[in-house]
Amino acid sequence: MEDRQQWVPLVTALIAGLLFGAGLVLSGMINPGKVLAFLDITGVWDPSLAFVMLGAIPVAAVGFYIMRAKERSVLRQEMQIPKNRQLDTRLIGGAALFGIGWGLVGYCPGPAVASLGVGGISSAIFVIAMVAGMWLYQLFELRYGH
């Protein structure tokens, strides 16, 4: 029984990740051109990303609403919800860096990883750079703290 309890969260996370990736593929969000066309409000604007967000945000909001009063998930895992609600330089700087990167190349982490399954060197380069950035962040965080 103990062995099963270790694998259930991993299998559930795998299934959730596959569903998320499939949703990204079906909606076309793994195509950086589609994302860039959404951000190009002065050119040939493509509003389809707005429809994807309008579909995803209410579903996520319901999930967050339900889980906010719980200490454990359905799989008996401890809930890890950030307690800090402050806007600080790190949060704003990270959001700005994320937005700049997203606007420059049309990828964010989820779609970039999902697009690895369909090939393409640009997504592989992005994911390698993303992982390197995460590693550098961890290195600096360990060395200099926050």
From TrEMBL:
Give the transmembrane ranges. Answer: 7-29, 49-67, 87-107, 113-137
**Is ATP-binding found in the keyword set?**
no
UniProtKB keywords: Membrane, Transmembrane, Transmembrane helix
**InterPro entries xref list:** DUF6691 (IPR046513)
Q: Does the keyword Transmembrane helix apply?
A: yes
Question: What is this protein's record name?
Answer: Sulphur transport domain-containing protein
The species this protein belongs to is Methylobacillus rhizosphaerae
